[in-house]
Amino acid sequence: MRIFKCLAVLMLSLGTVAVFGQTAPPADANTGHPVTDDEIAVLRQDVQADKTEIISRNMNFTEEQAKAFWPVYREYALEQQKIGDQRVALIKDYAANYDKIDDPQADSYIQRWVKFDEDSSALRKKYIARFKKAIGSKQTARFLQVDNRLTLLVNVQLASLLPLIK
C-alpha cells in the first residue's frame, strides 16, 4: 500500500525536524539524503492522490455524483491541508523538544493539539451540508466513514512514529 509508505516517510521526515533555526533538513529514512520542503510537498500530493483513489473505490459514484462531489472535495481537502499545516508545525516542534519539555511547553502542546482537533471537526461540520447537496445524505455518511478511516490510519502512523514525552 503506497499510502502507508508515503505517510511513514512523510511523518518520519516531519517528525525529525526542528521548527526554529535548524539548518539541516530531515533525512529521508530510505536514502539518508536531506528531505526538502519541496519533497514534503510532493509526498503530501502523493498521499492526497492515494486518498482520492481510496475514496473513488469506496464511494462508487454515479457520473452525476462524481461531477458534483469532486469540486467540493477538492475545496475540503485544501482546507484540510491548511489545518494539517498546524499539525505539521506541532509535530516538528514536539520532535525537536520531546525529551526536554517543561510544563509551559506541555501546556502549549495540549492547547495546539486541541485546536487542531477542534478545527478538523469544525471543517467536517462546515462541509456536511455541501456534501449532502452534492451527493445526498447516505453517500455523505459513507464518505465521512471513509474519510474517518483515512484519518485514523494517519493517526496510527503518527502514534507509532512519535515518542512519548520524557
Structure overview:
With 166 residues, the protein is mainly α. It has four helices and no strands. The protein is elongated and about 55 Å long. The chain has one domain.
Q: Could you name the ranges where pLDDT drops below 50 across 5 or more consecutive residues?
A: 1-35
Q: For this entry, what is the oligomeric state of its chains?
A: single chain
As a percent range, the share of helical residues equals over 70%
**Total DSSP E strands:** 0
**Total discrete domains:** 1
Q: What share of residues are in beta strands?
A: under 5%
Largest sheet: none
The number of helices is 4
Ends distance: 33 Å
List the helices and strands and how they pair.
Elements: H1 2-14, H2 37-59, H3 63-97, H4 103-161
Please tag this protein with its features.
166 residues; mainly alpha; 4 helices; disordered N terminus
Quick description:
The protein has 166 residues and is mostly helical. 78% of the residues lie in helices and 0% in strands. It has one domain (2-161).
